[in-house]
C-alpha cells in the first residue's frame, strides 16, 4: 500500500523554513538546538523502556531493535534517528526541511551509519510496515494534527509501536517555553505557537480516531539539578505510546 493514498498534506512551509535555517547548528549541544540535546537522553530512555515492554526484549540487550524497521518523522538532522540505528533498527528519517536532511546525511555518513533520510511530507512516504514510529516535538508544528496522526498510523506494522512527545497547552508551558524559553534565548524565537500545543486528551482523541490505542502517557518536567525527568504531571510536556488494537 502506498502511504500517500488519500492523505492530506500537513507541512507548514513557514515552520519548515524556520527549522531549515537552524540546520547547521543542529548537532551543536550549545547551539540553537541545545534544548533538544537536553531532552534527548530522557526521550531515549522512554523509547527503550517502551520497546522492551512491547516487544519483550531484554533490557540489557544493546541492540533491541535488531531486525526491526523504524521511522523517525520530523527527524531534524538526526538527533534521535542515529541512536535508533545504533539500537539495531533499519531506520528511515523524514523531515520537512531539505536543509535538515542534508545535515543529517552528512552527519550519519561521518558516524558510519546507514540511515535512509527523506525530505518532504510523511504522507508521501512510499513505505509502510514499520515496527516503530517516532515523532518527537513535531505535532505542534503541523497544519492538521488529525491528518498527521492518521499518516503516522498508516506507517505502522500490525504489531507496531508509535511514540510521540509534545508540549501540553497549559499556562506552565506558555511561561516556560515561550515567555522564558524564547525570551532569554534558550529556544530560538518563533519556534513555538502556544495555541497549536495539544493536551493529552486532544492527542488521544486523534490517535483513537486513527484506530490506535494509547497505552501510556508520561509527563516530563525540568529539574534545575537533574535536567528533564519523568513526572506524574503533564503540565509542561509529555511522552505518549500508542499501539494497534
Describe this structure in words.
This protein has a single domain (13-244), classed as Rossmann fold (3-Layer(aba) Sandwich), CATH 3.40.50.150. Helices cover 33% and strands 24% of the residues. The chain contains 7 helices and 8 strands. An 8-stranded mixed beta sheet has the order 3-2-1-4-5-8-6-7. Helix 5 packs across helix 7 (200-209). The longest helix has 22 residues, at 34-55. 42% of the residues are buried.
At a glance:
With 245 residues, the protein is α/β, with parallel strands linked by helices. It has helices at 13-20, 34-55, 81-86, 98-111, 145-155, 171-180, 200-209, and strands spanning 69-73, 90-95, 116-119, 130-136, 156-167, 212-223, 227-231, 237-244. The protein contains seven helices and eight strands; from the N terminus they run ααβαβαββαβααβββ.
Order of helices and strands: HHEHEHEEHEHHEEE
Number of helices: 7
Instruction: Write out the strand line-up for the largest beta sheet, numbering strands in chain order.
Output: 3-2-1-4-5-8-6-7
Name given to the CATH homologous superfamily: Vaccinia Virus protein VP39
Calculate Rg over CA atoms. 17 Å
Largest sheet entry: 8 strands, mixed
Summed over residues and divided by their number, the pLDDT gives a mean of: 90
Low-confidence stretches: 1-6
Number of domains: 1
